[in-house]
Amino acid sequence: MTETGSISIHTENIFPIIKKFLYSDHEIFLRELVSNAVDATQKLQSLARQGEFQGELGELKVRVTVDRDARKITVSDHGLGMTGEEIKKYINQIAFSGATEFVEKYKEKDQQAKDQIIGQFGLGFYSAFMVAREVEIWSKSYKEDAATAHWTCDGSTQFTLDEYTEGVHVKAERGTDVVLHVAEDSDEFLEEARLRGILEKYCRFLPVPIEFEGQLVNDTTPIWTKQPADLTDEDYQKFYRELYPMSMEEPLFWIHLNVDYPFNLTGILYFPKVKDELQFQRNKIQLYSRQVFITDEVKDVVPEFLMLLQGVIDSPDIPLNVSRSFLQADANVRKINTYITRKVADKLGELFRKDRVGYEEKWNDIGLFVKYGMLSDDKFYERAKDFALLKSVDGKLYTITEYQEHVQANQKDKTDNTVLLYTTDPEAQHGFVAAAQARGYDVLVFDQVLDPHFIGLLEQKLEKTTFKRVDSATVGQLIEKEETTESVLSEDDQKKLEEVVTAAISDPAMHVKVAALSPQDAPVVITRNEFMRRMKDMQRTGGGGGMQMFGSLPDSYDVTVNANSPLASKMLADNGSTVAKQAFDLALLAQGLLKGEALTQFVKRSTELL
């Protein structure tokens, strides 16, 4: 007997919506159909555990086949199957989820079933019509003496349903075959390579074996589903290579996530070596729901800075829309976000405490990540401040607290602020570093792309602490003390000296001033205002808002002439024409600012003076 009827829908013209708008990517159809087949298999396993099915389970495998000539794709399972009445209930009533009903019915009896059932949306089956002009279902229920049900629909709201108890149409075994008659505009999905790629992308870790053209395409027990105690380092490293076969380097270390309250979350996060560049690699963490690949766009689940990590997150508690492609930020997502951040901080803290030497060896590779986290997440800052490290020019590494204690005796200024000196390029700024060290000061190295922002953060967080780059002032002015140095020149001579040097260099970007420095200091020192230089650096590395205005301002420099230098009297004696120019060029050279024709003239003049 053939039954015909109309599919019960609650939205007019649902099929055009499904085909064009509901799913952002047509390849999703295969994931949905295979997931449904896995559900049917796991439901049968649940019934067997409960004693409601006592027959032979047999080989529980999902098979995907393609017949290019007949333009057919078939997804077959050996699960619990459906009767004609169940097809009418679960297929004809769009958005009624059989999986949801099953979970509700058995959740008290079989927690494993609740944890495993994938389909929660009801609309997944209809994604088939994105690529098919007609869809058939052949199904035989596990129930005793069940007929073979045959349902067909051409993409309209009309369907036909037949049931057979004898003849050639009777299925020999329980289970369901979904047959897609591929539309003319979807030829790509008749290509074996295309289908294999989709299966490997979305189904490679499904919990039931998936066979495509005679070959298994999935690992049913990926390592994130196992207990950490049962795994070795080699297991984690091998899995990393499976996830990222093109990676040339091993991960530094990893975190195994495993929590079942107040939400469910498993996964493995790997720490790769993070390169010092602004364009961090994203989309390296893969999101799964019950071992079904969902997306690698995890920004709503994972904090921004943690997207520098790699690996897998699997959670049935992450809410998804019907396409399973976009995450909705709700309470569970926020809890997961917070949990992952805490676990990462705990792991880093544990590594630091248990093996500081090993942690320090990794600092060059993880330092950028830690700083990014501290800048991005205040809670992470509070945890990370105890294991974030500062590097001195001599190569020693200190925690923030250790370094403050290390320098506070010698690097407090007259207002009792601790001044932390740093260089962004120890070689280029070697002269300034050496001058600071000669005074007994220590100098930090801040040469990473985020360091201008990180310095600003530390100044906000640390009380009575300020940072100065070693070339931002003369060495005597970097850390201002109570004692002062008297000038050997009269006020008139100091004024004249300023005029002589200004005339000799003739550059409006250079602001000349005369100061009483140590006779051992350089005759002329060129520095750049710390605030302006730092604002420009931050603007270049992504600072927003008001920092844009600093980026557009012209560069300006302070030229400090040492009144107590022996060359000061020589500059005054010959009116500065040669000596002042030579001393100024030496200062430019120390800052790496002497280039082109000016450098050529300096070399020629130096030869003549010799």
UniProtKB/TrEMBL annotation:
<keyword id="KW-0963">Cytoplasm</keyword>
<dbReference type="Pfam" id="PF13589">
    <property type="entry name" value="HATPase_c_3"/>
</dbReference>
<protein>
    <recommendedName>
        <fullName>Chaperone protein HtpG</fullName>
    </recommendedName>
</protein>
<dbReference type="InterPro" id="IPR001404">
    <property type="entry name" value="Hsp90_fam"/>
</dbReference>
<dbReference type="GO" id="GO:0051082">
    <property type="term" value="F:unfolded protein binding"/>
</dbReference>
<feature type="binding site">
    <location>
        <position position="32"/>
    </location>
    <ligand>
        <name>ATP</name>
    </ligand>
</feature>
<dbReference type="GO" id="GO:0005524">
    <property type="term" value="F:ATP binding"/>
</dbReference>
<dbReference type="InterPro" id="IPR019805">
    <property type="entry name" value="Heat_shock_protein_90_CS"/>
</dbReference>
<keyword id="KW-0067">ATP-binding</keyword>
<dbReference type="InterPro" id="IPR036890">
    <property type="entry name" value="HATPase_C_sf"/>
</dbReference>
<dbReference type="InterPro" id="IPR037196">
    <property type="entry name" value="HSP90_C"/>
</dbReference>
<feature type="binding site">
    <location>
        <begin position="97"/>
        <end position="98"/>
    </location>
    <ligand>
        <name>ATP</name>
    </ligand>
</feature>
<feature type="binding site">
    <location>
        <begin position="120"/>
        <end position="125"/>
    </location>
    <ligand>
        <name>ATP</name>
    </ligand>
</feature>
<feature type="binding site">
    <location>
        <position position="77"/>
    </location>
    <ligand>
        <name>ATP</name>
    </ligand>
</feature>
<keyword id="KW-0346">Stress response</keyword>
<dbReference type="GO" id="GO:0140662">
    <property type="term" value="F:ATP-dependent protein folding chaperone"/>
</dbReference>
<keyword id="KW-0547">Nucleotide-binding</keyword>
<dbReference type="InterPro" id="IPR020568">
    <property type="entry name" value="Ribosomal_Su5_D2-typ_SF"/>
</dbReference>
<dbReference type="InterPro" id="IPR020575">
    <property type="entry name" value="Hsp90_N"/>
</dbReference>
<feature type="binding site">
    <location>
        <position position="324"/>
    </location>
    <ligand>
        <name>ATP</name>
    </ligand>
</feature>
<keyword id="KW-0143">Chaperone</keyword>
<feature type="binding site">
    <location>
        <position position="36"/>
    </location>
    <ligand>
        <name>ATP</name>
    </ligand>
</feature>
<comment type="similarity">
    <text>Belongs to the heat shock protein 90 family.</text>
</comment>
<dbReference type="Pfam" id="PF00183">
    <property type="entry name" value="HSP90"/>
</dbReference>
<dbReference type="GO" id="GO:0016887">
    <property type="term" value="F:ATP hydrolysis activity"/>
</dbReference>
<feature type="binding site">
    <location>
        <position position="82"/>
    </location>
    <ligand>
        <name>ATP</name>
    </ligand>
</feature>
<feature type="binding site">
    <location>
        <position position="176"/>
    </location>
    <ligand>
        <name>ATP</name>
    </ligand>
</feature>
